[in-house]
Specification:
With 207 residues, the chain is an alpha+beta fold. Helices cover 39% and strands 18% of the residues.
Length: 207
């Protein structure tokens, strides 16, 4: 059930109305596909009781994951004093998120709808439609941070994440992420050597 606080977020949203009820499934979809700020806060309140309590969980989890240069001040990513992260930390968070395979069910949606078709969703991440193997992951744009993107893709069993931040335009961030992913797929492969188990002999180790 949407609170007045969740409905007041502004920025990108799905225009939740106070006391409107929406399933967790649809709120996840709205957050993943169109970066709906009201949906993300509604989810945070549902999980933790308040946005503040949820943000504390976000920061605790960031510490656990080794995101040493990240401090969350809200559940939306909107500009706030002291709300900071880095490309490295975003990549750590993205890698952890991708361990939950169901997430790509949402992040690979190009177009969908909510409220029995009354509200349309179009993914803010153009790579989902136009980059081979794209699996997500999330765009973000604010005046303070510029146009940002964590882009994930899988080809031939290799999964890569490219994080680009501070672009002047939306197109620039997609071009930067595409270039990074192209470099990764063009220069690296996943290789598992075949090991002859008979050659793995016991070795004496001192201390």
């Amino acid at each position: 059930t949407a609170s007045a606080h969740a409905c007041s977020m502004g920025g990108t949203q799905i225009w939740l109305e106070e006391n409107e009820q929406m399933s967790v499934e649809d709120l996840l979809k709205a957050t993943a596909v169109v970066s709906a700020n009201d949906a993300s806060v509604a989810l945070g309140e549902f999980l933790s009781g308040s946005e503040e309590a949820f943000v504390k969980r976000m920061n605790d989890r960031a510490r656990e994951l080794g995101m040493t240069n990240t401090t969350f001040k809200n559940a939306t990513g909107l500009d706030a004093e002291g709300h900071l992260s880095t490309a490295r930390d975003i990549s750590i968070m993205s890698r952890e998120l991708l361990k939950h395979k169901d997430i790509t069910k949402y992040t690979t949606i190009w177009m969908d709808s909510l409220r029995d078709g009354k509200s349309s969703l179009v993914n803010t991440n153009k790579l989902v439609r136009f980059y081979e193997g794209a699996t997500g992951l999330k765009t973000g744009t604010t005046d303070g941070a510029g146009a940002c993107l964590s882009a994930s893709a899988t080809r031939n069993g290799m999964e890569l994440i490219a994080v680009t931040m501070g672009s002047a335009t939306s197109d620039e961030r997609f071009a930067s992420a595409r270039k990074l992913l192209d470099y990764g797929f063009g220069n690296f492969t996943v290789y598992t050597p075949q090991v002859d188990k008979t050659q793995l002999l016991p070795v004496k180790v001192l201390r």
